[in-house]
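User: For a benchmark we're assembling, each entry needs the component sequences followed by a predicted structure for the full assembly. Here are entry 17's components. Please fill in the structure.
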Amino acid sequence: MTDFRDVGEFGFIRRIQGACLVRPEGVAVAIGDDAAAFVVPEGEVTLVTTDLLVERVHFLRDAASPEDLGHKALAVNLSDIAAMGGTAREAFVSIAVPGGLALEYVEGMYRGMTSLATAFGVNILGGDTTASRADLIINVAVVGSVHEKEMLRRGGARPGDRLFVTGAVGDSRAGLHLILNRLPADEEALAALIRAHHRPRPHLAEGRFLAQSGAVRAAIDVSDGLSSDLVHVARASGLGVRIDAGGLPLSPNLAHFCRRLGFDPVAYALAGGEDYVLACAVDPGKAAALARAFEARFHRPLHPIGEMTGGGRMEVARDGSVTPLPPAGWEHFPASPDRRA
Amino acid sequence: MTDFRDVGEFGFIRRIQGACLVRPEGVAVAIGDDAAAFVVPEGEVTLVTTDLLVERVHFLRDAASPEDLGHKALAVNLSDIAAMGGTAREAFVSIAVPGGLALEYVEGMYRGMTSLATAFGVNILGGDTTASRADLIINVAVVGSVHEKEMLRRGGARPGDRLFVTGAVGDSRAGLHLILNRLPADEEALAALIRAHHRPRPHLAEGRFLAQSGAVRAAIDVSDGLSSDLVHVARASGLGVRIDAGGLPLSPNLAHFCRRLGFDPVAYALAGGEDYVLACAVDPGKAAALARAFEARFHRPLHPIGEMTGGGRMEVARDGSVTPLPPAGWEHFPASPDRRA
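Assistant: Structure for entry 17:
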């Protein structure tokens, strides 16, 4: 093992620099100057999002591989760009490294990031590398772009808009449950749930598709949990939401997990969190055509899960009765005890 | 005192949101969606820089006011944009807050940031707010822009280019010495050095002036320390540097501090660090006119401090003799013991 600190900040930058520039077009200055410089395609607005991950709050160092950690730190930001309908372009990675952390660990994190970045044509164009006294800290900022007319916002939904999601919800939270309770992933179904938690796939292509369709009036990525995130859309649009529980896409893995542990899969899917699929509100006149086009393009369904309603109520329809959506907002400082701790 | 965590992430965002948008033009989406969206002026390249500040590594919570901390976290990033010759536009602030930290403290930090941001027309357009188990963490990313032809790089200097700095060097390090050794700032000169450390003024107007002059071939902001930063310029340009010690701008406050504590002011100014003035290499045929124009514009001198040389040597000329520049690289993980610890 080599202590990360022995190679120094500049030494480390020299080691990783080569893998960071995967799409040189449009880049005027990469790593190694006072700031990075690049062009965003003419006529597009610039998108910026950033996420800070703190050891013992967002991850446990012994519960994920460094590659997983790097992958996820970048993926959650790419997902935000996807939710705006944008193209992800440049990433900036700040890390603070506690004493004694192996160089190999930090290089593993960067491998996880550069591998995902390469898959989506995203450059790592800069960042900051420093010491930490206690916890490993990772901040990623991602710059993307989109034509302003195509940009997807949280607000803008109208009553009667159909709600869809681009993939299964609940798997990531089930994976987190297995990790936090140190339950053995002794079946492939459980191992897949843990992978869903560690290795979310940002729905960038899906976001671009939705943005270009002209049928989507509002969108969000499912990070806090489906019901919380739909509450964000409803509030930003001044509306309510009615979710059809029967429409929620539940994976066979989640169904198996819930049977084995005695949980309600619908409640799991609604509370969820860190699914990183997209939820969107669609013009009802264009919903059927959009769903068909999505399936033709991605070879899997765009899942109808309910609709926007004119009141301010958040409801779920299940087995013929309509009940208020359980409050499951995932804030980073919940007034109630942290449901992840 | 209100515990920061009692107001929650979303509650806090609602409290600070109003002060964050100081220049609405060009902003399509501010705080409150999946990503911020804005336009960069047509024909300009986008600049991005980011800095991560970690408690007990970069600052001590009891040694600076929260306003100072917020000011500095933003200022160091604005300084990087200044060093590229750019205009700073949008800032993104991620914070991780340890348990028990007062809401008032975090609001004070934001006051420090928004006050500086307002002075330079910079919006705070987004970020992330989360919990930390141990230390207070602040990551700031700043987006700026510049016409590519005006952009100032570290490389590009030529042998014989004259070196200048836009302000005094060494004050900030002297202030840090007073802080770390808990020496009383019992005279105004010493209090001013501490202010220089806590409240650096980003030289954005100076950077724009240098960029537009057409006379500057390379530039950097003095963050690691003048000699380290000139080594960066020299390496990026494939050249050497000869500093004229007699030309170094030493403030009367630094001179007083060095007399009182028995330090060599030249060594202090060369090692320095966190001065956040700009150093630049200037076409020798245009140097005199540039210095005159700078003085006319800013009512203080552009200080000549030496020149770029054809070899790879880093030297300092002092009292008629030329000696190698003492190695004083400030890396965040120095192989030698951390000179700040």
